[in-house]
Design goal:
Pfam family, one: ABC_tran
Organism: Deinococcus navajonensis
GO molecular function, one term: ATP binding
CATH class of the largest domain: Alpha Beta
CATH architecture of the largest domain: 3-Layer(aba) Sandwich
Structural class: alpha+beta
CATH topology of the largest domain: Rossmann fold
Number of strands: 17
Bound molecules: adenosine-5'-triphosphate
Distance between the termini: 45 Å
InterPro entries: AAA+_ATPase (IPR003593), ABC_SmlMolc_Importer (IPR050093), ABC_transporter-like_ATP-bd (IPR003439), ABC_transporter-like_CS (IPR017871), ABC_transpr_FbpC (IPR015853), P-loop_NTPase (IPR027417)
Protein name: ABC transporter ATP-binding protein
Number of domains: 2
Length: 324
Amino acid sequence: MTRAPALHLQGLSKAFGTVQAAHQVSLTVQAGETVALLGPSGCGKSTVLRGVAGLERLDGGRVEVAGTDVTALPPEARHVGLVFQDYALFPHLSVLDNVAYGPRRRRAGRLQAAAQAREALALVGLLDLQARTPVQLSGGQQQRVALARALATGSPLLLLDEPLSNLDEQRRTELRADLRRLFSQVGAGVLLVTHDQREALALAHHVAVMRAGRVVQQGPSAQVFAQPQTAWVAAFLGHRNVLARSPGEALWVPESAVELGAGEFHPVESEQITEAGELVRLRHPLGPLRLTLSVRERALIANGLLQARVNLTQARLLPDDRSR
Ligand SMILES: Nc1ncnc2c1ncn2[C@@H]1O[C@H](COP(=O)(O)OP(=O)(O)OP(=O)(O)O)[C@@H](O)[C@H]1O
């Protein structure tokens, strides 16, 4: 028998006054799969997550968790594990008791709840700190406790709202790798909200890109990144060279389409030094091309000129929906 999807969401809609926060959002999260809801601030990601969790009264839509229609059920009856941005832990409880709280609420006996909590703490690598209270932990450790708390519920669906947002860049990179390993171990479906493209790509099998309350593109993460369907999606995903062409049309030139050290010479202006290299602007007949150059590529610039050829077979014409 095939397993029911961890989440099947159909036509979720929610307005706040005149703001259509979510409009007809449909998506599926298979068991064992991670899906990222990705979009800029205010596009409705949290509204969708809160709607799935039962924390928001919906205007329309149907929410199924592990094959059960939970649309009419209160949050505590939906059997989802939640990790929010402000992963509020109980300050007066030990780490162990914080994590055992979920199973206890589900009427597990004290011993069984503690066993489930220990198992979850072991998964996030915090078993050693089980007797501490939250103030005795770093931000990253608190974040792990919040995750363990969601894992300990044994829910088929985990909902994570910007789970790494309160951490510095280094911790975030570390925890990202841990999370990916963890998600594959626990076998639950994960719906993750993020505005960070790299995070979505690093963690999720599938992404759903949201704009102004709607899902504008969804599919396997690598495919969505490599084949954005509109200029807005391409630009949002961080592709730099989405050049306006005619009204309503843009030309997307992926960085891989630009071959350096071949073709014509073009004037180049430096813009910024970044961790990935030097960001420059090339004055090209197609339009200004922004490129990140490695130290070796930077050395190809002579007298303010850089030789570059654009492989047009890799460039894509896209509908330009950016000004909508
Ligand atoms: N309780 C509310 N009352 C009125 N408007 C709301 C409410 N909650 C959200 N909104 C509005 O609905 C829209 C979607 O908000 P939502 O929080 O879902 O976006 P988001 O994509 O999660 O943003 P962020 O990344 O900034 O958290 C925004 O325009 C927001 O201002």
